[in-house]
Write a structure and sequence with these properties.
It is a single chain. The protein has twelve helices and nine strands. By secondary structure, the chain is an alpha+beta fold. It has two domains: 90 residues; 238 residues, BirA Bifunctional Protein, domain 2 (2-Layer Sandwich), CATH 3.30.930.10. Strands 1-4-5-9-8-7-6 form a seven-stranded mixed β-sheet, sandwiched between helices. The protein has a two-stranded antiparallel ribbon with strand order 2-3. Strand 6 and strand 7 form a beta hairpin. Helix 1 runs antiparallel to helix 2. Bound molecules: zinc ion. The site of zinc ion has 7 residues, from loops. Its main location: cytoplasm.
Length: 364
Amino acid sequence: MTDPQPAAAGGPLDPASLEAAVAEALAALAAAADLTDLAAVRAAHVDGRSAALVLARQKLGSLPREDRADAGRRLNDALGAVRDAHATRLAELTAERDARVLVEERVDVTMPTRRRHAGARHPLAVLSERLVDTFVAMGYEVAEGPEVEHDWFNFEALNFYPDHPARSEHDTLFVEPAGTGRVLRTHTSPVQVRALLSRPLPVYVVAPGRTYRNDTVDATHSPVFGQLECLAVDEGITMADLRGTLEVFAAELFGTGLTTRLRPSYFPFTEPSAELDVQCFNCRGESARQPCRVCSDEGWIEAGGCGMVDPNVLRAAGIDATRYSGFAFGMGLERAAMMRHGVREIRDFVDGDVRFSLPFGIEG
Ligand SMILES: [Zn+2]
């Protein structure tokens, strides 16, 4: 840089001034001790409003036309050198900071603690989450609804006729005052209706939750129990989709390689309806391995009810039943957990004794 431009001589764009500005910037960058320092140096020397090179660029327009090209090139070279030096220093200081954080924030995972076991997760919660995960992995969303439900959601919209026996006080717990139409939901199926009313189609939801019936507690009955159900409504859904979904579900619940079968059944909200049976995971239906306490020598375990969503249910939710179809599947969580873990008494699940839950608590 030995040919000073007369018009620029002495100004911020002459070679000597630029060289001095670059040298000063490089020295400041090298001297920055940490990222905070570097941010200040950047403002003062690289691209801050008062940086010498930024001020020099503002003078470019005032140079005589014939001098602008050379001055612009010199300025760009200078800016490039300073920016490169800043990037290099930034990388160095960031690496130093990261290395320091690793040392300073290290946690000694071998330190002994005196943590006491607070309890255990409830086996139904553990099972429910595991099954929900299976559906979420297939693209389903989790849906929930209230446990105190309106008769319309619990029965009417699900195609239960007004005189259906399930709607009697024999089976259903009504909420006072009488006549408000409020019930403790007898199944998780009202969540299906809520999902269809509130979500855009297609709908793929899995609904776990607590449900209630007017039952007295004994070894196999409880007035409160857990259910889990899934609902898929889309264009072109068939029974084959239901079957495929249930195979994945059965493998997650009882293990792989087990045959499933559908037995004709009846539910008000599905048509056709079926019971899902899964081959007994204990004896696999082989008489040589029986007597079998899991399936009482049936060779099959009843795993839940399912079917194609009745068009009346779709219509109740305002859906065009000529265009959309769907399937639903529901199951009792206690029953599945009893089968899976050989639990004899359903009341163990509601007693709240932590000694019952502890052996299940670590299962994820
Ligand atoms: Zn068996």
